Amino acid sequence: MPRASLFAVSLFFLCPLVLADTIIAFEGFPDGTVLAAQYSGLIFSNAVILSAGITLNEFEFAPHSGIAVASDNGGAMTITFASPVQAFSGYFTYSVPVTLQAFDSSNNQVATAVSRFSSNEAFSGVLGSRPNELLRATASRIARVVITGLSGGTSFTVDDISASAFSPCDVNQDAVVDVVDVQGVINEALGVTPSINDLNQDGTVNTVDIQLVMNAALGLGCGAS
Ligand SMILES: [Ca+2]
Ligand SMILES: [Ca+2]
Ligand SMILES: [Ca+2]
């Protein structure tokens, strides 16, 4: 077997899932803070911080982390992402069924998830339920998620939300950095395809960028700047 093929095979088996995760625990804000653009890369609407011992009934709506959560405030909670993400999740405690919808930038629904129970508070939740159910939506390009409980809000809490953006080294944006991405950036360096993935931002796609993707494909992380 030629050396090039052997190398390709080893890259294939090593390919890790390389995602840039943003996790938000909602800690550190005063109780009652209305969320908007406090977290970089995300814009919230209809979301408010509730803290244990103040406005949060933590005995029913136990935080998944710390003392604070976000709650739907006045209507369905919406989170818009500055750059598309390919997964969104959060831990939900609810007094009515909750629907998580994900939309792309053209407003097409690309994923949906529905709570398992009609309610899951610690004491009042239906039999068999527990607080902090993980709801998750995955799609290739999520621009926005809408989380709906009661139309007027104040019907669920969410904590420890996670949004996974594409790694800059994931050239073809399929959520895996592997030999296909290495080949993609090689083609750009050779001028076969347009030079898009200038990962170190030095104005040209060349061996330095190829090396960055190769390192990422080998599980060494994406050192893109
Ligand atoms: Ca928390
Ligand atoms: Ca890829
Ligand atoms: Ca470069």
Description:
The chain has 225 residues and is of the alpha+beta class. The protein is built from three helices and nine strands; from the N terminus they run αβββββββββαα. Strands 1, 2, 3, 4, 5, 6, 7, 8 and 9 form a nine-stranded antiparallel β-sheet that branches. Bound molecules: calcium ion (3 copies).
Q: What's the rounded overall pLDDT mean? A: 91
Would you identify the CATH architecture of the largest domain? Sandwich
Secondary-structure element series: HEEEEEEEEEHH
The radius of gyration is 21 Å
Distinct ligands:
calcium ion
Question: Count of helices?
Answer: 3
Output the CATH topology of the largest domain. Answer: Jelly Rolls
Tell me the overall shape. elongated
Which residue ranges are poorly predicted, with pLDDT under 50 across at least 5 consecutive positions?
4-18
CA distance, first residue to last residue = 36 Å
Helix content: 10-25%
What structural class do helix, strand and pairing data support? alpha+beta
* Content of β-strand: 35-45%
Major β-sheet annotation: 9 strands, antiparallel
Topology (elements, then pairings):
Layout (H helix, E strand, L loop, with lengths): L2 H12 L4 E6 L17 E4 L1 E5 L16 E6 L3 E18 L4 E5 L5 E6 L18 E16 L4 E14 L12 H11 L17 H11 L8
Antiparallel strand pairs: 1-9, 2-5, 3-4, 4-9, 5-8, 5-9, 6-7, 6-8
This protein binds calcium ion (3 copies).
Concise summary:
The chain is built from three helices and nine strands; from the N terminus they run H-E-E-E-E-E-E-E-E-E-H-H.
